[in-house]
From TrEMBL, chain A:
<feature type="transmembrane region" description="Helical">
    <location>
        <begin position="266"/>
        <end position="285"/>
    </location>
</feature>
<keyword id="KW-1003">Cell membrane</keyword>
<dbReference type="InterPro" id="IPR001851">
    <property type="entry name" value="ABC_transp_permease"/>
</dbReference>
<protein>
    <submittedName>
        <fullName>Branched-chain amino acid ABC transporter, permease protein</fullName>
    </submittedName>
</protein>
<feature type="transmembrane region" description="Helical">
    <location>
        <begin position="93"/>
        <end position="114"/>
    </location>
</feature>
<dbReference type="GO" id="GO:1903806">
    <property type="term" value="P:L-isoleucine import across plasma membrane"/>
</dbReference>
<dbReference type="GO" id="GO:0015808">
    <property type="term" value="P:L-alanine transport"/>
</dbReference>
<feature type="transmembrane region" description="Helical">
    <location>
        <begin position="191"/>
        <end position="211"/>
    </location>
</feature>
<dbReference type="GO" id="GO:0015188">
    <property type="term" value="F:L-isoleucine transmembrane transporter activity"/>
</dbReference>
Automatic annotation (TrEMBL), chain B:
<dbReference type="InterPro" id="IPR000709">
    <property type="entry name" value="Leu_Ile_Val-bd"/>
</dbReference>
<keyword id="KW-0732">Signal</keyword>
<dbReference type="InterPro" id="IPR028082">
    <property type="entry name" value="Peripla_BP_I"/>
</dbReference>
<feature type="signal peptide">
    <location>
        <begin position="1"/>
        <end position="23"/>
    </location>
</feature>
<comment type="similarity">
    <text>Belongs to the leucine-binding protein family.</text>
</comment>
<dbReference type="GO" id="GO:0006865">
    <property type="term" value="P:amino acid transport"/>
</dbReference>
<protein>
    <submittedName>
        <fullName>Branched-chain amino acid ABC transporter, substrate binding protein</fullName>
    </submittedName>
</protein>
<keyword id="KW-0029">Amino-acid transport</keyword>
<dbReference type="InterPro" id="IPR051010">
    <property type="entry name" value="BCAA_transport"/>
</dbReference>
């Protein structure tokens, strides 16, 4: 039983990272129907920014987290402006391929500039382990869970309660109509990229602190897993992405705990296929019929 | 699966060779076999400088460049009384088998190199074999450890393929012996890197020769960061030790997370862990009761003149401790130098002959002898980490 609860804790801390990343995918997809494959690499940028400011400018953890969110938000906006905006009216496949190109550019650019070795992340928060009835949980795990939940709540508030959020929802339903009623399309899309990328930046710093190891290719696998999480939860849906993230985290942990670690990635992709076959719109997705 | 892929590749290679021979018939070859030496000796480097294995590839590049710099500073390699400098041609294979094959073709056909150092990984290394064999140019891989890497499908040795490292069976069985005899571990869990021939090969070799009970074998992928689930599942298995063959980037995390989860049993690994970065990633407090098999020990190095000189030179050049990969790559270049000097010729075919005859070569990673299967034989040590520092080195005979 202890082991079971320990595994649940493991699954939740892994899942919260996938959830934070999945939010970025889902928001961008919801607005411009683009799967932003460079999203995982923004997360890597966040981790490297955290590494840099903690080591060089001696920021504390909170400051590093916030500054990483700002920097990643900005780089998300810049990427959108330079790479995706000129392609807004091209076929979707063009934008998709561009996203893969941006991803390669970021990965190899960082490898070129900073080397591809794994480096150790500065331990800005001293680790303390709590023992609750035989279940071990560290303060860093708690922090990750808590920060992710707070960030997701804030995001939900922004989308549901602010004017910008309303604009975002309007654009995601019909961007032409939104533009007609006075929504500034470019600004809304930029804002969406900023929000999603800021979440990824936060995830990057937290992962750096938790695992103590960062490298330029660190965004690759989590990026794909988070994409699966977004699809499972229902791509375009914010609560769906959070739930999908936690589900994938728990599922992966479960598969490893019963001794099938060699198949953990396979199981995640099998779930993706099953969901796509049975409920293509995902758990929370709305089944929108196209009107002719 | 891996094996069948390699077999397919080899089959493809043979087909290419046959095609090459047939093509040769029609154009009536006039030149002799291999690349003859010009005014300088050209050494090609086919290396993983980007992609998944770039970390190891770049360490090896540093070792290669240092070796070449030192040789050229002394006027070059003595070829039958005449000193010739080395020209280094470095090309990136992007950790991809198809790129490795085309890089090799470019090096041997266009650049006309006399010998090749690299690639770092078995997969990329196997992919270059057809092209270099056709051109009769030898290659020394600093770190391709798969037992079959230097062998043809029929079991005969590949004439132009050499390595400077151990093969997996030797290292895996040494670790098994060490775990059972020295650590008295009767129950071991295996946690191996499933994404390389290195990790799976070592796990297989360990399983074959370990006398105790293996309670669990689990696998991870290169780039994985979360091992908590696997480690938690080890907790109620009453294990005496964990055998974790792989590279420092993942094993460092495994050590950190195991200690954090309250698993304090010895963790045994392989030479992919022999890097100062291991303790940095694991945290020096966690990196205790950790053992790994390695040809190159910084501790033993202090008693060995060649290694000591290399360590100081490396530190002066790059401002960091020399990782094992750099030491192996440094040795690879010097093995080629030794072969050229012994054969008194820098023609590629002669270099291959010389490499096969290397005996008791005084390398940084120990006294190297190349056996009939082109494997490097040298002493092996088990290093012990305590608080992130090497506290003991045991030689295993």
């Amino acid at each position: 039983m202890q082991i079971f609860f320990q595994q649940v804790i493991n699954g939740l801390s892994l899942g919260s990272i996938y959830a934070l990343l999945a939010l970025g995918y889902t928001m961008v997809y919801g607005i411009i129907k683009l799967i932003n494959f460079a999203h995982g690499d923004i997360y890597m940028l966040g981790a490297f920014w955290g590494y840099y400011v903690i080591n060089v400018w001696h920021f504390n953890f909170v400051l590093a987290l916030l500054s990483a969110m700002v920097v990643c938000g900005l780089s998300g906006v810049i990427i959108e402006y330079l790479a995706y905006r000129p392609l807004r009216h091209s076929p979707r496949i063009t934008a998709l391929i561009t996203a893969i190109g941006v991803s390669f550019f970021l990965e190899n650019g960082m490898s070129y500039l900073f080397g591809s070795n794994a480096r150790d992340f500065p331990q800005a928060v001293k680790q303390v382990n709590y023992n609750i009835g035989g279940v071990r949980i560290s303060n860093i795990q708690l922090e990750i869970l808590l920060t992710s939940c707070i960030l997701m709540l804030i995001l939900q508030l922004i989308i549901k309660r602010t004017k910008m959020g309303r604009a975002m929802r309007a654009v995601s339903v019909d961007n032409a109509a939104a533009e007609l009623v006075g929504v500034d399309l470019n600004r809304t899309i930029s804002f969406t990229f900023a929000l999603g990328s800021a979440m990824a930046g936060a995830a990057g710093v937290m992962i750096g602190l938790y695992y103590n190891s960062i490298d330029p290719l660190m965004g690759l696998t989590p990026g794909i897993k988070a994409f699966v999480a977004a699809v499972v939860g229902g791509i375009g849906s914010v609560p769906g992405a959070s739930l999908g993230g936690f589900l994938i985290g728990l599922l992966e942990t479960l598969v490893q705990s019963i001794g099938l670690s060699a198949y953990k990635d396979a199981v995640v992709y099998v779930v993706l296929i099953v969901i796509l076959l049975i409920r293509p719109m995902g758990i929370f997705g709305k089944n929108v019929k196209e009107k002719v | 699966m891996r094996k069948s892929a390699i077999k397919k590749l080899m089959g493809f290679g043979t087909a290419m060779m046959v095609a090459g021979i047939l093509a040769g018939c029609s154009t009536a070859k006039t030149e002799s076999k291999g690349n003859a030496a010009g005014n300088t000796i050209k050494i090609g480097v086919n290396m993983e400088l980007s992609g998944a294995a770039a970390g190891y590839g770049n360490s090896q590049k540093q070792g290669i460049q240092l070796a070449v710099k030192e040789i050229n500073k002394k006027g070059g390699i003595n070829v039958n009384g005449k000193k010739k400098k080395i020209t280094l041609i470095i090309r990136d294979n992007k950790t991809s088998t198809s790129t490795s094959a085309s890089v090799a073709a470019q090096l041997v056909n266009k650049d006309k190199v006399n010998a090749i150092v690299g690639p770092a990984t078995t997969n990329a290394g196997t992919a270059q074999i057809p092209n270099i064999t056709k051109a009769a140019v030898p290659s020394v891989s600093p770190s391709a450890t798969d037992p079959n890497y230097t062998l043809q499908k029929s079991g005969k040795v590949q004439p132009y393929v050499f390595r400077a490292c151990y093969q997996n069976n030797f290292q895996g069985s040494t670790a098994a012996k060490f775990a059972y005899t020295n650590l008295k571990a009767k129950r071991v869990a295996i946690l191996a890197d499933n994404s390389s021939d290195y990790g799976t090969g070592l796990a297989k070799a360990f399983k074959k020769s370990y006398k105790g009970k293996i309670t669990a074998s689990q696998y991870f992928q290169e780039g994985d960061k979360d091992f908590n689930a696997i480690l938690t599942s080890f907790k109620n298995k009453k294990i005496d030790a964990i055998y974790a063959p792989g590279y420092y980037s993942e094993i460092g995390l495994i050590i950190k997370q195991a200690r954090q989860a309250g698993i304090n049993v010895p963790i045994i690994g392989s030479d992919g862990m022999a890097d100062p970065k291991l303790a940095q990633i694991a945290g020096s407090k966690s990196a205790t009761n950790v053992y790994y098999t390695t040809p190159f020990s910084t501790r033993v190095a202090n008693q060995n003149g060649t290694a000591k000189k290399f360590m100081t030179a490396f530190k002066n050049e790059y401002n960091e401790e020399a990782p094992t990969f750099s030491a192996l790559a440094y040795d690879s270049v010097n093995m080629i130098k030794e072969a050229i000097e012994n054969e008194k010729s820098a023609d590629s075919v002669k270099i291959a002959e010389g490499l096969a005859k290397i005996k008791n070569f005084d390398g940084v990673t120990g006294k190297i002898t190349i056996d009939s299967k082109h494997n490097a034989h040298k002493p092996i040590v088990v290093e012990t980490l305590t608080d992130g520092k090497v506290s003991a080195a045991t030689e295993i005979k």
